[in-house]
Specification:
Helices cover about 40% and strands about 15% of the residues. Helix 4 runs antiparallel to helix 6. The C terminus is likely disordered.
């Protein structure tokens, strides 16, 4: 990274170094000079004649407040480097950088024990349910868009930003269905170690002593002709052991779970 980038700043945020980019934006590690906290600044190229629309599209997403949606702390358009939108979010990583769910799954050998996979699904479905009630949608969620913090908790990065910035967003019902299906796909891969591509092997053939209800849930959620039409429908069909956790999440938000994941993260 050159010295010019290192000297960039947005308000109190001083850029330190460029990081690996995400799906939507380039990333920089930055420090808030007032309170000495670490943050990630995301850069999205924006045409000068489109800045007002971009700001209006992102603004509602900055009000999302859920433990498993990475908060948007500040949005600025055109303030640095001309035609760019800058989004500031918390830094959830370590000195080695950010850790996403795809990287963590690979580090664990490609699959997770059922209790960890259950909790991941509860967190992701809970985040989507919260956002959908407020009229916000993300569309299909990829594992590399899900960050894992130092306590092992998951958070969707830049929730809804890509969808909000698209000129043609598509029917809301279809976007919701795609989002829910993607979470089922993540669940299938966490359980089995395989992607949910066709021809798909039943989960019960890949995971020893897996409850048949998990296979039923995966099959219903991944049905190419249907799938779950909403998060509530997906939650209603989850096995009973997970339903108990869902009820707990609804009454008291769980901010730090995945004890094993936390230990793995701290050992990196």
């Amino acid at each position: 990274m050159n010295d010019r980038v290192a000297r960039l700043r947005i308000g109190p945020y001083l850029f330190l170094r460029q990081m690996q980019g995400g799906r939507v934006a380039d990333r920089w590690l930055a420090v808030h000079e007032g309170d000495d906290t670490s943050h990630v600044v995301h850069r999205i190229p924006v045409r000068s004649d489109d800045q007002a629309r971009v700001l209006e599209a992102i603004r509602p997403l900055s009000h999302l407040d859920h433990p498993h949606i990475l908060p948007i702390e500040q949005v600025s358009v055109g303030s640095v480097g001309g035609g760019n939108a800058w989004i500031v979010a918390p830094f959830t990583g370590t000195h080695e950088g950010l850790l996403n769910l795809a990287d963590l799954l690979a580090a664990k050998g490609g699959r997770m024990p059922l209790p960890e996979a259950e909790r991941a699904l509860v967190q992701l479905l809970g985040a989507s349910r919260y956002a959908h009630v407020l009229g916000c949608r993300h569309g299909a969620i990829a594992m590399n868009e899900v960050l894992v913090d130092r306590g092992g908790s998951l958070a969707v990065e830049l929730y809804g930003v890509w969808h909000a910035l698209r000129a043609r967003q598509g029917a809301a019902a279809e976007v919701v269905r795609d989002e829910v299906r993607s979470i089922v796909e993540i669940g299938y891969q966490m359980l089995t170690g395989l992607t949910a591509d066709e021809p798909r092997i039943p989960a019960t053939r890949l995971v020893r002593r897996l409850d048949r209800r998990w296979e039923d849930w995966c099959r219903a959620g991944l049905d190419a002709a249907g799938g779950f039409p909403s998060v509530d429908a997906a939650l209603a069909c989850l096995p009973a052991s997970v339903s108990d956790v869902v009820a707990e999440v609804k009454s008291t938000p769980v901010r730090t779970v995945f004890n094993r994941l936390g230990r793995a993260l701290r050992s990196r």
